[in-house]
Design a protein that fits this description.
Blueprint: E1 2-9, H1 18-28, E2 35-40, E3 44-50, E4 64-66, E5 69-80, H2 95-106, E6 114-124, E7 129-134, E8 143-146, E9 150-154, H3 157-161, H4 172-180, E10 195-197, E11 202-207, E12 216-219, H5 233-254, E13 259-262, H6 267-278, E14 283-290, H7 302-313, E15 317-320, H8 331-339, H9 349-352, H10 361-373, E16 378-380, H11 395-400, H12 404-414, H13 421-441, H14 456-460, H15 476-481, H16 486-498, E17 502-504, H17 510-518, E18 525-526, E19 529-530, H18 532-537, H19 544-547, H20 566-580, H21 592-599, H22 607-634
Parallel strand pairs: 13-14, 13-16, 14-15, 16-17
Antiparallel strand pairs: 1-3, 1-9, 2-3, 4-5, 5-6, 6-7, 7-11, 8-9, 8-10, 11-12, 18-19
Length: 636
Amino acid sequence: MSGIFGIIYHGGNQNTPEKALSKMRLWNLAYGRDRDEVYLDTSAGLGCCYENLSANKPPKALILTKNTKTAVIDALLYSHKIPGEDCHTPCLSADEETLFGAVNRYGFDVLKTINGDFSGAVYDGQSHTLTLFRDHMGVRPLFYYTDHTLTAFSTDIRALLALEDLDASINEDWVYRTCSGYYMDSLEATEYRNIFCVLPASYTIFHLDRENTPPEKHSYWHPGSRKIRLSSFEAYKNRLRELVEDAVRIRLQALAAPVGAELSGGLDSSVIDILIHRFGKECLYHSWSADPGQLPYAEGDERLIIRDICSQEGISCHYSDLRPDYGMDSNMAKTMKEIGIPLDEDARPVLRYSLPPYINTLTLSGTSEYMNRNGIRAIFTGHGGDEGISHRCNPYELFYHHEYARFFRQIWRSVRGQKHRPVRFLKKSRRILGSVRKQLSAPFHSGFSVPELLDGKFAAGFQGKSMPALHFAYSPVEYIMEGGSRNRLDNVALQGAYNGVRYIVPYLDYRVVDFAVSIPRYLYLNGTRNRYLFREAFRDLMPDSLYNLQCKEDTSARNLPENPNWFEEFLMRRDEVNRKLSRTLWAGYLDFGFIDSWMKKGRPLSDEEHQQDSNLLMCLLQCVMAQNAVEKARNT
């Protein structure tokens, strides 16, 4: 686990990067506290903060050099397939050295054959180029900024925000989408107009001595680039299981650190956790759900499935506190104090820790903190299953992917035994190809939208611009390429680092993803049984309650006791957000007349009004978090 960072001034500019590099190091220290090194010359600086989790030996030096090239790399490799070398064998040298050696020998396209979570930067002082690269699915984050005077990169986006020479203007497209309900992460854009993510499965080359030359972006892999057709359902099932088992196994073998795992009671995390136990690896299991001792079971409770899994496997699961404390005794607060990052102790946690506007932030922090305090360094998560291998297929997906005969066969089977079956078949087919198709292909509109929050003139500028559809339900490849996994991955990288753990994501093994999106779509749907291929592949491992699960929801929340002080707490959060919101920064974007009127409102009179108030507060909080990250980073 490493945090990598660097800054290069263009065109022979003699600006010394030492001060800027020192600020960037501060925000990356949490990613690696074992060792750190920096490289400096008259106009360039690179750095790496390193923490060793790999079963392979650590690198001799964190600043890697070869002839005129200098590199910093964040890598945890699981297996590799390099031309002329053995496949699926453990790396005999340090992961970072293996990766650097491969790209030096064979070029950056060799990354396609290397299985791991990685990002890196290679600076060539002779050709005056900087090359940034990332793993296939973007498990490890890497952000960059470039203009006519400098190019900078960092694992943690706040290291870029800390640079006063950098233009951290807000991304107007992000503001519009967030408040109007069209918000979806992209693979590349961020909340800031001029800061970007290095694309997954790519390498980007910056020509530092050429003015007005855009970076060259090269893709080395694309999921689902070829169709996979096997002889039978049994063959698909066996291959799926083989790939998932291997993805879990090689990750366990690659880690020297003790491991933990999230156990949600859903298909994805449960299969991984059962496999970890069956492979004989000692593991600490943790659920986001509240402890049954604090919150009674509800009907259909996901914790009942967790109970069945624990009983079947002879393991135990730790549950989250019903009302967790994210105060100044938390790991994140202690880490930031140790590093030297100032904290606003009176601010709510997401603002106190200068967090970017991610989702599930505090829940992830609570999980990773519990694991760290119990000696765990790596957490297995089921994230990414929905993107591919355990995909929830929608019947329209069969039609969308030209599996027409399978589509109509599926509809015919779904009305089996019903009166006037042919008529029902025609009506259902028409509905799916009509209203359902229209709904799925239309721009995705979140329930958290508050378009009234936007300045009218600003919002009018987006009228007529196309907004993205949610391809999750019927086109996994498009969903992946639109950035469906990014928010969670960026968040777990940050939360894990500041709590001393690293998240491991077996379902985003590029071989698993590629297989999942390349096989026929009908394999995932059988009558009303969704995620069918995945269920059948692991049926022998699952308790009946898990196998028969249709849709996992946090049903335990039905038994949450009502908070009699909720409105007073809401007012406190509303006042804090309003105080923090910069009227100068957001002028022209937000309607402050509307906000001022909302601030005078009393207790909501209906559930709908309550939900609208909550949505509005959430939108404003997202804006304040984006603003706060810049302010706090530049005050370090």
